[in-house]
Design brief:
By secondary structure, the protein is mostly beta strands. The chain contains one helix and 32 strands. The strands form seven sheets. The protein has a six-stranded mixed sheet, with no helix packed on it. Strands 24, 26, 28, 29, 31 and 32 form a six-stranded mixed sheet that branches. It has a five-stranded mixed sheet with strand order 14-18-17-16-15, with no helix packed on it. A hairpin with a 2-residue loop joins strand 12 and strand 13. The longest helix is centred in the middle third of the chain and has 4 residues. Pfam families: Por_Secre_tail.
Amino acid sequence: MKKHLFPIILLLLGNTINAQQDFFALAGKDSPRIEFSDFRAMYADGTSGQNIFSVSSEAKVISQSRKAAVLEDKTSYNHAQSMTLAALAYDSAGENLVYMPMFSSNIYVLNQKTKEITLVENTIARVTSCDINSHITRMTTGYDGNIYAVNNSGTQFLQISKKNNQFVVNDLGIIKDDASNGKNSFTAMETGFGGDMIADADNNLYVFSMSGNVFKVSAKELTAKFIGKITGLPENYSVNGAAVNSKGKVVIASAKGASMYELSLDNLEARQLSGESNLHIYDLASKYFVNDRAVSSNTFANLDVYPTKVDESYIYVNVNDQSVKGNIKMNVFDVSGKTVMTQSLSVKNGQLNQQVFLRNLVGGSYIVNIADESGKTLLNKKILVIK
């Protein structure tokens, strides 16, 4: 059944891509020091879009553990609008922005719609303001739906997952250099510190260091393998943000006031985007993944699966197309390509609107594949099951 899943490719949208807000940025002020300004959406060309939340916004912070509003000390580093924010991820399940101050172990979850902020009290991370090794500077959402964060030296590799509507933090261990890294060490300040992190559709993570070095991180083996250095950047360009855009390319940004660049992991050759040239970006985040073939691919305009964010254990399969006849088969794949569910559905006179229960599926990302009686794929669609 995997043959239905993997031929899917990312569709290039041409000039229309410039009209969509593609990813998110944690932006700073035009200042010689780290100084948080706002969270904003970004257009694909590197132009600023909607301002989501800023340093001057009124912040309502709710403690996850106490389930009550908290009043934070604005003179400390431990608050939701600290000037030292530097790690950002996009929570696809809740469409929230998850972030951490650089000098703090606190985790914050910003609801884009209500602007309410959840404080996740984190006793797992050991972050101190005076220890640069301990600062959390890289964060991303993995293809499995969990959020991952790494400190500068790789001595804390955090997994932030959601269970029973509560965020849970686990320390996965220490990330070490692959034996082949040589002088391009993931754990050395000059070659491996700072930057940001992205994920691919094969459950790998990639850390972009401030110096422009790129490391492939295995969450299972806890190793970081040097894969190359970004080319085509201006001298002394500081890589502080990285995210995957809707084309599957990596966008990088700098905190020092510069343009954004786009590159492919295949060759790491950077191409300057045409947008703003004096952006101060501390971190980037998006809902996309490198090598993600699990995008919506639909042969028929009137065939669909919804919702894509599943929080009530069922989806609907809808057909309104006279060319679709007889029985169709629904296959559900997990992120590794394994078939976890199969069900036959009967289409009568080109019509079907059937509720399908997703039996015993744990929380995470899945691909729903719809095929006709001959085995031809009619639809592939990615869904996210929330538990």
